[in-house]
Specification:
heterodimer; A: mainly alpha; 3 helices; extended; B: mainly alpha; Arp2/3 complex 21 kDa subunit ARPC3; two-stranded antiparallel ribbon; 7 helices
């Protein structure tokens, strides 16, 4: 196996460290924050137009760490999948 | 820096798509020209690494957190166009599957973290690559450049629409708040994190993939 793949796997292994912080990124607060800080929630921000299937990298059944690993692997698999398909398409075109 | 849906006025996300679409088209052509058996493992791995490092949330004083982006590495090793497109792919997956960022704001996030992040890293690296710490500098500048774009685009929202009672319709804090909060935290913390990540990973890649990096 290529060393770079092992490196990616090693970084994935450490991914639960990302759960240490409960703090959200600046500006990426829940709506309750705006309610508390401003006394209102700006209109456009009140309703989400779209629900992601795995919001905040958390699933209901796998626990925090399990969900985070699952999300990391899923994301990485999709990224590799996209590049492999793209390479196949490029090959056919050539 | 992942702007969610509902934060941006339609004129802003409309304009950001209008700007991003032709840039994505150029980037896609560049990627197609460079994608082969040799480059695919590294481009895909660095994109995957970007996705993963964005999951490492690092707390900072003030009750918030942030993370590295991983965009500088791709820009330095391949090209800023490929960096821009790879980060856009990462951001799209984050928005679509994990609700991190948004779909209306996807183009704006891609321009900020992808386009500005990649091109600033590329130019800094080209100018400084004789220096030992050039990757650190490129990483730091790319995070700060991204944060400036995101802070400006969020900070102009209060002036773009209010409801009947004068309350902002979109993101409510102006430039006087977003610039110090977002750019300040990237100058002091997350830029440093991006710089260290870029420096260490670049040196490590030189060891494990010397062939792929010989032209850099």
């Amino acid at each position: 196996m290529k060393k770079i793949y092992l490196f990616v796997l090693a970084v994935i292994a450490l991914v639960p460290l990302g759960l240490i912080s409960e703090n959200p990124a600046w500006g990426e607060w829940e709506n309750e924050y705006y309610e508390k800080a401003l006394g209102f929630i700006p209109k456009a921000m009140q309703n989400s137009i779209f629900e992601a299937p795995i919001p905040d990298y958390a699933t209901s059944s796998l626990g925090d760490v399990g969900s985070y690993y699952f999300s990391a692997f899923l994301g990485v698999l999709i990224i590799f999948g996209v590049f492999f398909i793209l390479k196949k398409v490029v090959k056919v075109e050539r | 820096m992942h702007i969610p849906d509902g934060y941006l006025a339609p004129v802003v996300y409309g304009a950001s798509y209008a700007l991003a679409i032709p840039l994505w088209a150029i980037a896609f052509k560049k990627l197609k020209n460079s994608l082969d058996e040799e480059t695919l493992p590294l481009i895909a791995s660095l994109s995957a690494l970007s996705f993963i490092v964005m999951m490492f949330n690092i707390p900072v004083p003030g009750g918030t957190s942030g993370h590295a982006l991983g965009v500088a590495l791709i820009a330095m090793i391949f090209s800023p166009w490929i960096g821009f497109l790879s980060i856009s792919l990462v951001l799209f997956i984050q928005a679509l599957i994990f609700g991190d960022g948004g779909l209306t704001s996807f183009a704006a996030n891609s321009l900020g973290m992808g386009f500005f992040g990649a091109f600033s890293a590329y130019f800094v690296y080209q100018k400084t690559k004789h220096l030992k710490y050039a990757p650190f500098l490129a990483g730091w500048v790319s995070a700060v450049a991204s944060s400036i774009f995101i802070a400006v685009i969020l900070g102009i929202e209060p002036s773009l629409g209010v409801d009947g009672s004068g309350k902002p319709l979109y993101f409510p804090f102006g430039l006087d708040v977003t610039i110090p909060a977002i750019v300040g935290s990237h100058i002091l913390f997350f830029g440093i994190v991006e710089g260290i990540f870029t420096q260490l990973t670049f040196k490590f890649l030189l060891k494990i993939e010397p062939e792929a990096l010989k032209a850099v």
